[in-house]
What does this fold into?
Amino acid sequence: MKARRTCPLFLLSIAAVVGILVGDLTPNLIPEWLSWTLGISGLVATIALFGKKCPVIGSFVLFLTIALLFSAFHVQKLDHLDSFVLLPNLNRGQTIRVTDARATVVSEPRFTGSGQRRFGRAVLKIDGFRLAGRDWKCHHRFPAVFEIMPEELKYGDRIEVSGRFEPLREATSPGAFHEKKFHFRSNDAVGKFYVEAGNRVDFSGENRGFRVVHWAHRTRDHLESALMHGIGHHPIETRSVITAMVLGMREDAPEEVEDLFRLSGTMHIFAVSGLHVGIIAAFAWFMLPLFGISRRTASLIIIPVVLFYAVVTGLRPSAIRAAIMISVVALGFCLRRPARILNSLGFAALIILILNTQQVFQPGFQLSFAVLLAIAWLANPI
It folds into this structure.
């Protein structure tokens, strides 16, 4: 009862997680149209029950309703992934060559070579392709590998490219990297796209990237230049670790350096966490009053600052979680409302899961929220 009154958003986030897990395990349990109908009906019933002062029953109905809606939302995503026309071929391990694939670059390209061998990777959202003299539509995402990636390729570019669809590999031994599961959960991908050297890559001149992401990338480049001031003569290994620690930029880090950190158990150094976001917020909190800005105004300024920093550092789940929680605390300060850590944590989880239900299955999401949840529960008893 106390948790329902003081931390309602935390309970709703649990309902969302339960619904997503049920939808993932039993996608055909309830027809999609019935799930949406029951979910909307449940919202109406919840409002009626609270209006009749039946908070306990209303809370129970609301919990089931949120679980049902998130389950339907996740099943809808899974149905979309299963709708890829070449999925049966990929499941049989076949490779399919296509031409005139129309795609948008939806991630920052990562180059891993130099000179004539600019091997690179990016995530492409392919809208259509040509196969066997016929045009096909798909609207799916694929991790793409370029044997020679164009230097001018950037986030948001519209391109036409020829290549081949390949199946994602499964783990070859227990505990080994499971490429298929990783890209399915992190990129909503059911296969990968391979562009060989010499394949056509044409730019349409159009860019469909979000403007705020472009601003974030430019800001990140300026910050990187500032960080590198005075240490440009140092080896790339040193510089890449610094940029990864501060800005989450792993694009320039040599793979052998990442392997060393991974094997030593210190790969978390490369991850931008909530601590980074907290440092930015604390810096703004103490610096802004020095310029005559009131605390209430400073708390409002902090909100867009931490949200923009989360975008600059690559929208990591831990950074998003921290930015949302700090925004809630700052807004509560303006409204003179006390912030509750579990409620703020639940609100952050709901926002992230609305944006992408697959985050439930990401280790970064799980560890980030589990650690903070443990702190919230055990801090006072300890």
